[in-house]
Write a structure and sequence with these properties.
5-stranded mixed beta sheet; alpha+beta; 48% helix; globular; 174 residues; 5 strands
Length: 174
């Protein structure tokens, strides 16, 4: 019984956060709309965290500006993960510093960088991303659910699966 009560309470909190997102969407803020659409296209759909990954530093910086401006996200709420290749003339430390500088984040947000090895079979020289990809993570059910609510409002859609603890894509939900 306790688990059902707790689950119902948490679900009600997610619904409230989505309602808040719908209200924000009705305010017609172009930064908010653009940030939500970027998340819809490039974000990982989780119920309790905003996760955004891309290799385009300007896009990642823009998404971070959206989080800071529209959701008052502070640096200490941000986690940064980098996924990169070496053998491109840059050290892992140089790649990490480049991302931190470009995103104007302190080194305290950085987690262990994942270094991929280029397989001998592919040997695609020049095809790997010079500085890899950056993944921004903000662990906040309220923020991600607000974004989900806003997306539904902007797009004129209903996605009831986004309220669940692990949203499924429409293809998997069917």
């Amino acid at each position: 019984i306790g688990q059902r009560v707790w689950s119902a309470q948490k679900r009600a909190e997610r619904v409230k956060a989505q309602d808040h997102g719908r209200v924000l969407a009705r305010q017609a803020d172009s930064l908010h709309e653009a940030g939500c659409m970027l998340f819809w296209a490039e974000g990982s759909k989780r119920a309790n965290a905003v996760i955004f990954t891309n290799s385009d530093a300007d896009m990642v910086a823009f998404f971070l500006r959206f989080l800071r401006s529209c959701y008052d996200v502070r640096d200490d709420q941000v986690v940064l993960r980098i996924n990169c290749h070496t053998g491109n003339g840059l050290s892992v430390a140089e790649i990490e510093r480049w991302w931190l500088d470009r995103l104007q984040l302190p080194s305290s947000v950085l987690r262990r960088t994942i270094v991929n090895r280029t397989s001998k079979a592919s040997q695609r020289k020049g095809r790997t991303l010079l500085r890899g990809t950056a993944q921004l993570i903000v662990h906040s059910t309220d923020i991600v659910q607000s974004i989900y609510g806003a997306l539904q409002e902007y797009a004129g859609i209903e996605r009831p699966e986004w309220i669940e603890t692990e949203p499924r894509s429409p293809a998997k939900a069917a």
